[in-house]
Amino acid sequence: MTQALPKVIIHGGAGSSVGHKERLLTLREDLHSIVNEVYSKAESGARARDCVVLGCQLMEDSPHFNAGYGSVLQSDGQVRMSAGLMDGEAQRFSGVINVSRVRHPIDLAAYLQPAADRIVSDYGAAELAREMGLVPFDPVTDLRLKEWMRERASNFQSAMAGVVAETVDVPADSESRRGTIGVIVLDGSGHLAVGTSTGGKGLERLGRVSDSATPAGTYANALAAVSCTGIGEDILDECLAARIVVRVTDGMDIATAFEKSFAEATNHGRDFGAIALSQWGQIAWGKTSEVLISAYHTGDGVGDTLELDSGTLTGVV
Ligand code: ASP
Question: Any stretches that span the bilayer, and where are they (predicted)?
Fold first, then answer.
């Protein structure tokens, strides 16, 4: 077993605007503290998959992101959450789709990792939460409820809910959107894992399925791991996470895999972002949206993508 320097990258959504300076600073503080906590766990020798679950739980607990507590409401005013988890070493996917009243949807995905049936939805997810003995939890925040009521007043004209839960009242035509979370870890043994957790697009029709608990939004093998965020239908149409992982597996370096995949996405008019790690320790990100809310730990220090220019951009550190 080789001893490698752990690496971590997380995201808190992609969209059209982070908002005002104050919000940027709050987000940066949140992201940096979470990335540091996940890195410490990885540094202490924990497995990639366990570090990913911790990172997802921490982000699900933050009301600033659209996952767990602080999830957006669907068109009928209910929260339904989805999460996907993939262990790169085992190349094993598990997930939960449209679960309600749990605190950490990622815990259901983690519980299903060794199971014969590895993706469950709706009624089955509720049964699973009962089987796991989870205490019922109401993830609705006042801010998300207000956002939904504002949208109802304008007859649900917005394509998606806010990327970050607003800290102040914003006009109904606010451009800010989304806020799904994703975590990828390369552990000290050189193993990869990835998790993605979401409240969905927000305001969607009942029964709509997010990309997050599919290999389009969350995918990993021994060589690369990718988590996506943005318009789920666009991510599914590109099969983005699996597309990038397969390119790296077939010999393309991760920088080229991102450049090619995001050039294609631009040509197809897609609106999303993605983060990745390779087995060789490269940290990668890309976006067609204006902003990608992401932070990473290189082993030497923390960086983020909060103040990138708008438009299609990719990067590797
Ligand atoms: N991809 C998520 C969905 O479409 C939303 C997001 O990433 O913010 O459900």
Answer: none
